[in-house]
Structures are given as C-alpha cells and as structure tokens.
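User: Okay, second chain of the day. Same drill as before: sequence in, structure tokens out.
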Amino acid sequence: VTMSEVKNLLVLPRLRVQNANAISSPMTWGFPAMSAFVGLMHALERKLAEASLPVSLGRVGVICHDFEAQATEGGYIRGFHLTRNPVDKTGGTAAIVEEGRIHLDITLIFSIDTGAVESEHENIAKHIGELVAGMRIAGGSVIPNRAVPTHKQRPHWVTFDDDEEERMTTSLSTFKHCNSNIQTPVYWMHG
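Assistant: Same drill. Structure tokens below.
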C-alpha cells in the first residue's frame, strides 16, 4: 500500500507518555524503537476487535513534539536515572539492570480502514482515543497532557479525496495541524 492508496488517517494528537523505554537498540538511546509503536498498533487492533469496531490499522506514524530523557548530564557523559531494585534473598543489593526512560509528548497517526459509515468516524476516533489512554506505549504510561489545551488533544479522523490535488491539500492541512513544536522527524512505519 502506497500513501496514495491510503483513504483515511486517524490522528491521536499530543499524547503524554511517561517513562517510555528510551533504549532503541544495543547501540542507541534517546527515543523508543519504532517496533514499539507497531506493537501498540497491533495491541490496539486486538482491543478494537474485542469491542466489535469494524476497523483495521495498516501503518503508524509518530511525531515527537517534546521529550525529556531521564538522564543526568555531566559534560560528555550521561547516566540514566535508575530505580532501586529490591534486595535479593540474602538481603544484599540486587543487580542493576540499566533501563533508559524518557517522557514524551507525541502525536500518533494511523492509516485506518473501515466499513463504518462516515457519520460514525468521529465516534470511532473518540473511542480509539479512550482505548489508547489506558494502554502502554513503549512501556510508558499515557497520562493527561496538562501542557496542551484539551481541544488540541481530541482524536480526529481525516478522509482523503481521490483527486490528487485535494489529497495534497488535505495532507498539508493535517500536517500543519500536528506540526506545532516538532522536536524530531516524523517516522512512518508499516504494520
């Protein structure tokens, strides 16, 4: 499926994720691996099937508006803020497993297909927003985003026209709507 074949997008704007996993590979840290967002998409699809919502998700895009790595800075060296593990059986200190964490302000964009009539799209978007609010993203918890007005956090459905020029106008409008305070590039990944 190419982007020109995508008919609908679901936009979940300005989600606040606390303590997401910031280690994306053995050699890199700073943002969760894209596979974590694909995993969220698959988990969300299972929840939608349980709720008997007639939708399927095909791709996920991530826009990062802000981030706060949970790390201490000292010159060229950074160290993760680590949690204290419980003591072991002997009462001694348990081994530390280094876990990098980050707080994120992100917008998620899903390609979405449905058999539902257009008048149901906004209700479906709202329901999906409620489901995601109770899920974990990259191991982090979705919490209320107090830094952004509530009306800017409402999930919304974007339907594309078959006319190429109209599709471009809708795409640009959607991107501008999501584009405030972008800190990192937009990532888009197949499911």
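The beta strands are 8-21, 55-69, 71-74, 77-80, 101-114, 136-137, 140-143, 156-159, 187-190.

User: Thanks, on to the next one.
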